[in-house]
Amino acid sequence: MAVDKMTKLTLGPLAYHWSSDRRRDFYARIADEAPLDEVYLGEVICSKRAPFQEADLPAIIERLERAGKTVILSSLAEVMLKRERKATADLAELDTPEIEINNAAGLFDRSSRPHRIGPFMNAYNEATIGWMAGKGATHVTLPTELPGEAMAIAASAARGLGLGVEVQVFGRASLAVSARCYHARAHGRTKDNCLFVCEDDADGMPLCTTDDRPILRVNGIQTQSETYINLLPETGRLIADGLTHLRLMPQSVDMVEVASVFRSVLDGARDPLEAETALREACGEVRFSNGFYHGQAGYRRIANVVPV
Amino acid sequence: MSLAELICPAGTPAALRTAVDAGADAVYCGFQDATNARNFPGLNFTPEELAAAVAYAHARGTKVLLALNTYPPAGKVDLWRQAADIGARLGVDAFIVADMGVADYIARTHPQVRLHLSVQAAASSPEAIRYYCENFGVKRVVLPRILTIPEIRQIRTEIPCEIETFIFGNHGLMVEGRCSLTNYLTGQSTNMDGVCSPASDVEYRREADGSMSSQLAGFTIDCFGPEEKAGYPTICKGRYRTDHREDAYYAFEEPISLNLSRLLPELIDAGVHAFKIEGRQRSKSYVRGVVSAFRKAVDDIRAGRQADIADLVALTEGQKQTQGAFETKKWR
């Protein structure tokens, strides 16, 4: 595989409600050790958690930027309540192009000032990407469920318009969001009196079928895949197809190691098969999947050796 | 008081005529392909059937709304554009859209046709709704089923377009247009293919102990005792296990129908312009029963009479029903 120093490796926004200590330690290590170019921060899933994140945010941003990483602030995926509307409007007012918008409310607030389009914005096709570019988008993250064939066409269109284009290559997929909190529900509570029980599940709350087959993960109002997406074998194809940024989602595994594995493959410094073994070791028992990319059921793992 | 139009499902030409005859103010339907969110086998319209349907509906003063409410994957946008061109040529009264690229195309190419924002666009705040109104000239928003009535009332004061809400039928749990659960298990996408828990992947399996399990693409979605009626395996209505609970439970929602018949006067008072009945996959007789009952109730309320809602409650007899998020935010 060709050596590629241009492709940027990013860390997506933390989806889970980790304790303040855990979060600070995590990002300190990411700042100092992970070969990542860009890091997305901010609460995307639940506005009730946002105050916890905001308290540490300045220190974490400072630490990451000092380590030479670009920081992008991501907005809430769901905007309904007054506090969610205000949080979105406040973010949109920031005087930096490095904000990622995940809800049309944010697009309204941002007007045509430059911004990034997040994975919850449903940028499925070249027409929509073209529309968004005309409204100030400088970068777009494609939906995780988009098949590779469509991804290539979307990426080519985005590049043609001068946009950065990104897709998730590692971690649990976001499969759904709701107004209802399923973490609270699992504990017989409602969203308003949840007592932040989601903090107990640092990698999501596992759901199994009645015959004990792991199927989904609950993360507050979000439903995630049981499997981790792993597009390590597809990175060569993604880059050839025009993706400029590859996104890793923070999971409860050694993310420094995960980032190093992806970086080494991008740099042509490690054989993809050997890298796959290292990633396997870093992730323990977790099952990997790449079905969405191959236009098949998302949970599936399709054997794939694509010559580039 | 708002007009409280009744928007009724038309999965087939026969269901469309039935809904029109039963008193629908408007019917909504789609083509036989991925351009709409009920892309099920045996449903929907050919262009010829739609032409006849528009003629039938218009002759009786009923509007026809064409659902183009899925998200084209890159490379396939033309299918959605062609569907819009055909709909415009046949004289549909509005397009129901979700994708910004599709909305932009219609706003530029067919500016004479009204645009309605589908529930699939997940616009749940005044800002999101205004984004679509100001950019694409959207005239009506179909609100996600996650808002309380006071929240709807508030939104109404802050947006320049009409509001349509679901009042009856399937109770969607997840934010529509943001759900890949079906694609995760089956390889068919709700957003791109218009498919949710497709029948082709459904299987019912009788176990040795007489119980029945309902499966989707080989995953057990629910399990029923010998005396229980087995439900359809919709992922967000299934029973699952988790570590800290002894028994399998409905992790998202029970199999339950939305029925807002008791809330109709409040919804009208909150400024809702149109009531939507879900169910393009339903039979003609279902459509006839539901549409007739709601027609009478809405007419009674408009005329200042007490609506007799007994008939409406009876429509879901034997099926659990809910007022969902509309009644209380405790639902969340």
Brief rundown of the structure:
The complex is a heterodimer of chains A (308) and B (332). Chain A is an alpha/beta fold.
Features:
heterodimer, A: 308 residues, alpha/beta, TIM Barrel, eight-stranded parallel beta barrel, B: 332 residues, eight-stranded parallel β-barrel, three-stranded antiparallel β-sheet, 15 strands, globular
Q: Overview of this structure, please?
A:
The complex is a heterodimer of chains A (308) and B (332). With 308 residues, chain A is of the alpha/beta class. Chain A has a single domain (8-172, 227-289), classed as TIM Barrel, CATH 3.20.20.70. Helices cover 34% and strands 20% of the residues of chain A. Chain A contains 10 helices and 12 strands. Chain A has an 8-stranded parallel beta barrel, surrounded by 6 helices. In chain A, strand 9 (214-219) and strand 10 (222-230) form a beta hairpin. In chain A, helix 1 (20-33) runs parallel beside helix 2 (50-66). Chain A is globular. The mean pLDDT of chain A is 95. By secondary structure, chain B is α/β, with parallel strands linked by helices. Chain B has 2 domains: 5-171 and 256-331, Phosphoenolpyruvate-binding domains (TIM Barrel, Alpha-Beta Barrel); 181-250, no CATH class. Chain B has 12 helices and 15 strands. Chain B has helices at 13-21, 47-59, 77-90, 100-109, 126-136, 149-158, 181-186, 190-193, 264-269, 284-302, 310-314, 324-327, and strands at 5-9, 26-29, 63-68, 94-97, 114-117, 140-142, 162-170, 202-206, 212-216, 219-224, 239-240, 249-250, 257-259, 274-277, 321-322. In chain B, helix 1 (13-21) packs parallel to helix 2, helix 1 runs parallel beside helix 10 (284-302) and helix 3 (77-90) runs parallel beside helix 4. The relative contact order of chain B is 0.15.
